[in-house]
Design goal:
about 750 residues, 5-stranded mixed sheet, homodimer, Sema domain-containing protein (chains A, B), 46 strands, transmembrane (chains A, B), membrane (chains A, B)
Chain lengths: ~750, ~750
Amino acid sequence: MTSVNGFCNICVLLFGILHLSKTITPRTSFLFEPSLDCSSHAFHQTGTPGRVLSRFNASDVQNTTTLLLSPDAATLFVGGRDTVLSLDVSQSDGITLKNKFDWEAPKNPECNSLAFNQNCANFIRILQFINSTHLYACGSWAFKPQYTILTVDSLKVSKKPEHVKGHCPYNASERSTALVVGEDLWDADCTVSVHNLGGILLHINRREKHTTFLYGKLYTATTNDYFGKTPVISRYFSDDKNDLQLSDNSRVQKGATFIGSSYIPSEGKVLFFFREAGTEYNFMNKFTVTRVAQVCIDDNGGERVLQKRWTSFAKSHLVCQAQEQLPFNLLQDIVMVPAADAKSPDNTLFYGIFTSQWALTSGQSAVCAFRLADIKAAFSANYKTYIVETGEWKVQRNRDAILGKCGLHNASDHILNLVKKSFLTVNNIQAVGHKQLLTSKEELYSRITAQRVQAANGRMYTILYLLTESGFLHKIVLLKDGYHIIEAIQLFKSPQTIKSILVSITKGMVFVGSSEGVIRVPVSNCSFYSSCAECVLAQDPFCGWNSQSKKCIQLYNVNPNLCQDVENGNFTDQCKDSESGTLVPRKVIHAHHYEWVMLPCASSSGLERVSWRFSNHSIVPQSHYLQQQKDNLLVLVTPNTAVEFHCVSEKQGLQRTLAVFSLKPHSLGSSNHSVHSLDEDTLNSSLPLTQPKNYYVEMVVVSFLLVLCMCVLAVSIFCVQRQSRSTASPECNELSRISSAS
Amino acid sequence: MTSVNGFCNICVLLFGILHLSKTITPRTSFLFEPSLDCSSHAFHQTGTPGRVLSRFNASDVQNTTTLLLSPDAATLFVGGRDTVLSLDVSQSDGITLKNKFDWEAPKNPECNSLAFNQNCANFIRILQFINSTHLYACGSWAFKPQYTILTVDSLKVSKKPEHVKGHCPYNASERSTALVVGEDLWDADCTVSVHNLGGILLHINRREKHTTFLYGKLYTATTNDYFGKTPVISRYFSDDKNDLQLSDNSRVQKGATFIGSSYIPSEGKVLFFFREAGTEYNFMNKFTVTRVAQVCIDDNGGERVLQKRWTSFAKSHLVCQAQEQLPFNLLQDIVMVPAADAKSPDNTLFYGIFTSQWALTSGQSAVCAFRLADIKAAFSANYKTYIVETGEWKVQRNRDAILGKCGLHNASDHILNLVKKSFLTVNNIQAVGHKQLLTSKEELYSRITAQRVQAANGRMYTILYLLTESGFLHKIVLLKDGYHIIEAIQLFKSPQTIKSILVSITKGMVFVGSSEGVIRVPVSNCSFYSSCAECVLAQDPFCGWNSQSKKCIQLYNVNPNLCQDVENGNFTDQCKDSESGTLVPRKVIHAHHYEWVMLPCASSSGLERVSWRFSNHSIVPQSHYLQQQKDNLLVLVTPNTAVEFHCVSEKQGLQRTLAVFSLKPHSLGSSNHSVHSLDEDTLNSSLPLTQPKNYYVEMVVVSFLLVLCMCVLAVSIFCVQRQSRSTASPECNELSRISSAS
């Protein structure tokens, strides 16, 4: 029972603590607010006041599954359905269309007769810089894949589209991955901030020499047939037409699904991430595993053995599993985050989203991290060899770590025959810490991107951006011990299945492609936090409180003067000199007695505990006040009801008044409304009750008139008696005068 | 809007259908009602009026984990802590103690220093008829197992207790199983109705020749060390001291848990059911599997190879798994139900309760059935041989189905060497229908027993009796397509971990042993169902409606004249000539206006849908009436509230009025109670509200007085004026008289 804001009689109702399980509760949630402007090719701003999103929607731009950002992050190349676009994303006030290349597949009755006829269009599945002035694009072209070369500047056709096999999938709903690597195109030791994965190129520092029409080499992993059953991992645009393929089907299992790929300059290798049947396991049923496979960029294929085939192909099992529990075995998306120190590339991390082939009680999806050093270790250790005759696996000891090495295309036939048979590592690659970084029971995460960011104190933090199937973007910071969901931003009102995501680190923007267009989300909006405590509690490495300007501002450099505590959100230490809250305006609610009133109070943060405090005129049982779903309070207005209500949120001892309501009872009988509400939406499951008629005022008025009347009558009778007995008294004359006047 | 029971203005509120998931909803539930009589060695009756349970509790009888019924089902032998009892269970009015054998282990400081010191007593783990006049008993005897032979009639010691290894476990908390088979003791082709499993003997037809002190042979499977790690499967009391053991530890994995055993006369085999590490599988982590192992009763061990060892041991994997889902891999209890036709013993079924080593979303426990024919097929097909050198399994083709056969103790050394290596079948034994018969998300089933019963129309049905960890007995009938939980009877107020169960088919009784004593539950109580519809809806094969006597009676024979429909509970066809309900008395509720009233209505069946119907004086919004948790109705009493409320349950179109309430509003202002309730317990989460003061009556009285007063005043003034101008009128004289009088 504390005294707050001058109230002398304060009751504190601490309602049941909301689901505080940290597993999935974002600190701040921004819900979807649709834009009113729906004109064609329109850019518009949407979102809550706290989170302004830029959208590029156009009726003829659909399924923007492929996104590619220019090195200067000013232009976003978008591959959609039957179209390639370039968008100017350099202006803060909007996204504008720069160029458009229409690339429609002809109406094909043969295609339309297929079971997958919703995919009978040209869905662009690869967009890559093939050199500094040209773009490579591959589209499914109604189950007859085509590729083309476009100029970066104007999206003009530089090489006419032509049919091609093994570059991108026949069926646009199949996953595939591709990237371009070229000695002439890329610095071997350039800083690849976040590389492309799942067909998504993120942000690459490129050499400044323009070598026009000298192509980089294209590394692809895709299914290569109508039904998406035949997996291929290949290299195209090789020197001397020395394109490479997988040697046979057993290397990648039929029905494999390719998720992502990554170029590792320090190793001279390209890594492919995919899932396939785990044939080395012998469980009750088919068991799918997540793999990482490697190929070397210097591979030229063998001379006699493995001609035109990879001599460097090897694969291993990525395990996202907590102790003794079932693994999250199905990779959904993966992103590479380079080591903080460019000199130790072995600390490069891969963050993957996983689901499980079984319905697990532990959750729907999980995030695991894998270290490059662990992947390297698995590839340089022993291998398994499948003995076709017996159907069994034998261990192939890897003497001198020859297997898994680059440069084996020059090796002896004996070694190449060994390579041909032994491509699966004995050791699995365990996730960092042998555990999941996070698991979510509620959310099915579909896409991931990530970046490192330096906090005010100079410490590096990893930020994960996760797209949920329900249409939210979760921004999560990984802490020393766990994680914290900083924000959950609703991007789509309804779930969107086709999605892509990339982050521009230099511009501080996240781009999301969906079936309806492109959305740009700033990585942070620090100004949303209006007090030092809120700014620190956000635990957002991008934001810090400036005590001079009394503002929560975005960090660009290390700045120890800013108040910030990413690890703990401890505002008590950080905000010693700052006021911790802002004034909230008081809302006056007019209501009738015996009417139910809904007082809305929405805490923006799921981690806060909301309670209601109210003043009382008298002692009233708490049962008069019913807390409804969410944090709203449903109040029955009675003559005894409190008149002032405070909605207070609390986190780590910080009390923040979110709303103040004054109840003003109406004069009686003037309304028939049974429920008075401030927020129609929150009322759906409220408890409407009629207002019973109370005759108190009427009775008082009538009683007063009765008393008055009786007084007059008494005086009147007194006078009459007096008059009848003797002469009229002055009072009685006065009374007679009144009577005459009436 | 129908007209029911003469109401002209009936509103029908069909509230949200209660959780109708058939998975776990029993039709009728009987909750625990503790007995008041708690005297020592007391028999008492407890339970609801619908279900009377007989209990035998005694302060010195605890942990009655072992139950054995005499062939005439008149005597129940009970093995508890430090004691063996014989109870007379033949009297319907109670259970009485016949004899008692105290068999205490001495206080042993060595034992008490062990980690398991709560088990430092003599827990009787085996009770078996060793012949027609004697009982074999084995107890853990504070980690130094002892056995003894007692007389059946008086529980006198016939052979002094002596230490023994391999009969029953050292640690009483370890599971074990044992049974006695003897050529001289049992008919080879006798009808074993339901055999003993998990140390539970059920009901056996025994030969009538008494061969005193000629023992049957004891088959046991138990752990055989302090820590319960060493599993042994053995035979004792063999002819010529030719007792048999497992040949080596690899046959049953270290740490195996034995669940049950079964004698199959048609095969001359004993089957053991257990779980152990599934070493033939290669999954991410240790994977436990459920096994069935066989030994032949004619086995005498090999001459040179496998001397004094089983030559007939083989094991297979029992799979309780639905398509593509994770298996329920941990057997908890299993019961044998002989084939309906004794001439085709291959149709013998085994019903097992399974849980999973993982937390599955599909449920906590499942029941699977296995057919003897499928078990035989697995044992006569190919075997796996473990190659120690390579750590791999090879397939051993079973030419002429030699492996798994009985009589191999006479075979050549070559064959016996093959038998020694090849004891695991290649084929798994799938559950009947390759699926679970039932899965339960809520209940953890711990023990099972079962019986076949013939319905009124002659069809055979299987009844499962399942004990839940929460202290309930579920009685379930297996239907053509699914199952139906007929009853859920609460036996224990709090969960009981040590339990045993057996059914007496001839007496129609289920016996349950717990840590506190023995409970006897009749297999049915048909008289609970008071109408034809309820009797048929119960779908209980034991019960049928007799149209003549208008009673729901227990079936003893096929009787097509009784109304019964076990498969569908279709009472419309069955109860054509019978009335379908009984009259319910009306309850009068006195309440104040603006008071909340809780109207209780408890449907005994979770499968029924409860709705409320009420008469209205005027049109009132339904929102006045709030249905609380369960089926109770919370009503705000207003001048407009309905006066009569009917609680109606509905199943398959049958409407049954469960309760009728009349609301009588009190005179105003005479009570301060804010909530009026008929059932205090159901009110815990109700919505109490104060009754606002209504001044209507007061206002009417005051208004009347005001009008009267004004009339008097008006007349008075009129007279005064008249008097002052001229002579008094007769009316004014009258007024003056009144004034004078007042």
